[in-house]
Amino acid sequence: MSPPAPTPPAVPAVPAVPAAPGATSAPAVPDARMARRFRGFLPVVVDVETGGFNASRDALLQIAAVFIEFDHAGHLVPGATHSFHVQPFPGSNIEAASLQVNRIDPWHPLRPAIDERDALQRIFKEVRTVMQSTGCKRAILVGHNSWFDLSFLNAAAARSGVKRSPFHPFSSFDTATLGGAALGQTVLAKAVTIAGINWDTSAAHSATYDAERTADLFCTVCNALADSFARAEFRARELGWQEHAGPEVDRPVGASDDASGGGDSN
Q: What are phi and psi of 227, to 5 degrees?
């Protein structure tokens, strides 16, 4: 691998506006950095453990969601984790081979499982709360082979009658793709290890563990792309595609001096 890159620039926070003397407290102003970084989307890492590969037929057995936030230095880091064991829906299929991998006993009397609707509503409630605090308009699922997790999330929501999901129904951020492009590795364990993150094989295939390591990987790759994002954000403002949000940032190295946008309008 190439030598470690310099610490990427942080995304500046939107400064708080002081209240006028004697004024009543106003609602907190959302920290717009996340909305600005991902075009109004809130990235939420989701991992599911299931009874098979068929989202409409096979049971959802465990789901975990990890929020992404900014640390004090302005870098992306994993935030809170919310994880639930899920009761197999009536008539669902569970493949023995899947249980050998995820080591879940769906019928263990001490497994604290709740039904699909309850699990989704609890996660969706937390997602909406963070969306409000960050000014994001919609959540976007981050997953390793994200199509799989999103398909089970959508199927469970439809099956349990949860009509308003905060997640985009078909767009997602796939860390298998990000890992392959940035690190040359598409397998989660290998991508995480190459990125310098500890991987515990004995803990793998738990929704909580896999979601948290996926969040680590997502943040690592995104932070490494901070310079690229700064140039792209500056160019978007030149083109009038993005309104100014938060404090002015320095012109990134390599950014165009042509403020007109130029080029073909098509």
A: -65, -40
Q: How many domains does the chain have?
A: 1
Tens-digit pLDDT profile for residues 90-118: 999 999 999 999 999 999 999 999 999 99
Quick check: 87 and 60 in contact, CB under 8 A?
Answer: no
Nearest to 64 by CA among 221, 219, 217, 205: 205
Q: What's 166's domain CATH number? A: 3.30.420.10
Q: Does an H or E element contain 221, and which? A: helix 207-224
**Among 72, 144, 168, 205, which one carries the catalytic annotation?**
205
- Residue whose tokens read 């970084």: 37
**Is residue 205 flagged as an active site residue?**
yes
Nearest Cα residue to 128 out of 185, 82, 87: 82
Structure tokens at 96: 């023995």
Which pLDDT tens digit goes with each residue over 177-191? 999 999 999 999 999
